[in-house]
Amino acid sequence: MSFESFAAAHSTIIWSGFILAFIMGSVVTKTNFCTMGAVSDLVNIGDSGRFRAWFLAIAVAMIGVTLIEAMDIVSVDNTRPPYRGSNFAWLEYIIGGIMFGVGMTLGSGCGNKTLIRIGGGNLKSIVLFAVIAVCAYFMVNPFPGSDKTIYSVVFYNWTSITSISLTGPQDLGSVIASVVGAETSTMRLVLGLLISTVILVLVFRSAEFRSTKNNILAGIVIGLCILGAWYVSGGMASIEADGEAYSWTSYASDENWSMLEEAKRPDGIAVQSYTFINPIGETLRYAVSGFDQNTFTFGLAALFGIIAGSLFWSVISRSFRIEWFVNFKDFLTHIIGGVLMGIGGILALGCTIGQGITGVSTLAMGSMLALASIIFGSALTMKIQYYKMIHEDDATFIKALLSSLVDFKLLPESMRSLDSY
To answer: Fewer CB atoms inside 10 A, N or C side of the chain?
Structure first.
């Protein structure tokens, strides 16, 4: 799709991102897709349906990205955030992922679920959204009157030194290709199709899952929406100038920008797909800027699209209802969850959608590590909550933690201090 001006292309990209997010929000609400719920179902009742839907979305997005890269339609080498970046910050992926997993459990859902619940009338999620926004914003932006951020004060000095600087991108295709001496593009194609095929086989081997239309619908549509956003932001639009065709991202990032009439380059221009923690933080910047249109990013369009889609389905299905905190403990738990999600989501470069589907679709090793850490953090928190619930006063945090780690085979049975019943 060719445009004569960047402004026209930019507007189309933003609206396309909104529409895809609207579809995603509607389907997520209809099918009750929830990544925290997926972990909860698996850990607490042994139901893998929603977990399989999550991985179906990963497989669909991965197949799509693999093919559009192989056909030179879109490259996801340089993205926002830099999933394939050569800086492999393994410790940040792990710590941030675990923090996010704990936070989303305490906050009753991930960033995407927070938006879904806002659209459905949940006032608790508005408070949670605000807490995430403040924490995510100050993870990357300095405090007023200072040059310090949460990241620079709390994490940088001890996590950055553990990062590994690779000679190339951190995706599996690039890393393995450099080891065996193969073409990176060929290795990405082979691995992308191989891994996604294995995931699909594992997902659909369950007869129960094959009979659940909602879970299958959720996985396919969410995966396609992630793929659609990659295409929209990286391969859909081009700018015609001086007889040449430029992608909208490259046109805005090189010297051609000076030829445009706009006085300021809009923020957030990059090849990207859906992620929600950093964009939630961007809402604070958007408000602080006085709602400057140049600070309205693709990510913000996605947020509003998810909320609008959820609101739409909640209204037509008559499931819209106002909810508030049960008590002060419920309020405090959600606040702590919001802090952990805001900080952890930025540290890990994404959430259950941003890293768990969007990032993994690029075959980035950091995304896979972050995803595993998020799942572990969430599952561990649920186990601890379980032990504290069934043992009440006898279950200290340490006892519940040790017993939970025994359940996950991370500690020997001799260290169990609470029975699981």
So the answer is: C
